[in-house]
Amino acid sequence: MRPTEEQEELRSAVRAVLGRHPGDTAWRPLTEQIGVAGLAVPEEYGGAGYGAGEVHVVVEELGRELSPVPYLGSAVLTVQALLASGDSGACARLLPDLASGAVVGALAWAEGGSWDPSAVRAEAVPGPGGRWRITGTKEHVLDGARAGVLLVAARSGAGVSLFEVPADGSGVDREATVTMDSTRTQARVVLAEAEGRLVGAEGEGYRVLSHVLDLACTALAAEQVGAAARCLELTLAYAKERVQFGRPIGSFQAVKHRLADAYVLVESARSVALGASFAAAADDPELSRHAAAAKSACSEAFSAVAGEMIQLHGGIGITWEHDAHRYFKRAHGSAQLFGPPAWHRARLAADLGLTSV
Fold first, then answer.
1. What is the pLDDT of residue 319?
2. Contacts for 270 with CB less than 8 Å, ≥ 6 apart
3. Residue 138 C-alpha from the chain's centroid
4. DSSP string of 33-64?
C-alpha cells in the first residue's frame, strides 16, 4: 500500500509550514491552518476523524526537520490514552482543546527508565468525593513542564489505572529535565498526594498503556524514518559538492558503498514503519508485533545513518554549526524512548512464543 493522494497533500502542507516556521513557532500554524493536533480525534470531539496513516505522514515530516513541537506527547500519547480509556465524559471534556492545539497534553507514565505498563509503581489511594490521592515520581514525560492536561498512570487496588491530575494543582511538582536531545522536551513529575480523577475503569490502565505503547512506537518509527531519510539526503548532497583530490568525494567507490548501505537501511526502515502504520490504521490484532519490529528496526537504522552522516561529512560533521550532531542526538535519544530496541525484540520474541520477556 502507498500513501493516498490526500495524505501526500497533507505531507506537502506540513512540510511547507515547517519550512516557513522554524522550531516551536510551527505549532500554532500547524494546528490552526492544518489541524494536525486533531487529525486522529473523532469528529464528535472536535477532531478530523482520521487515523494512523495521517499521523504517520505528520510525524515523518516532523522527524525530517527535528521539529520540537509537542505533537508526539500531546496528539499521540495523551489523545490515544483518552480514546483507549473509553471514558466518554473525559473525552468530551478534554479532547476538544487538545484537538484544536489550544492545550498541550502529557501522559506521565514511565518510571525507573521503563515504559513497561507493569513497571508502574506510583500509588493511587481513594479519597472523599470520588477523588484520588496519587503519590509517585514519573520520568521522561514528553512536554510535561508545559502541559495543560496531565494524565498519570498509577496503581490502585484493582491494578494500574489512569488519572487526570490538575497540572498545576497541589502536590504536583513538574521540572524540565536536561536531555541529550534538546529538541525533545521532557520533564520529571513528582506527585505527593496530588488530587486526581479516575479516567476510564479502575484497573484498566495496563490495557490502555499497552495499546498506547504500540501506537507510540508506530508513530516514533515514522519520525525516525523521516529523520534518517533527511540525514541521507543531506549527506548525498554534501558528497556531490565536497571535492578531494580533484573530484567529488561521492565519486569514490568506498563512499558510494556507504551511501548505498545507508539507502538500504532507510528504505528497509520505511517499509517496516509503514507496516506498523497500516496495522494501526486497520486495528490489526497483531499490531503489537508490527510496532515492536518497527521500533527496533527504525531505531537502529536511524542511529546507523546518523553516524554515517557525521563520518562522511568529515570535520564539519562534528561542529556545532552543522546539523549533523542534532540528528545524531535525536537518533540515540529516540532509540531509548519508549524502550530500547533490545526490549522490543524481546517483546516480539515473547509474543511469537520464542522466549519470555
1. 84
2. 225, 229
3. 17
4. II-GGGTTS-GGGTS----HHHHHHHHHHHHH
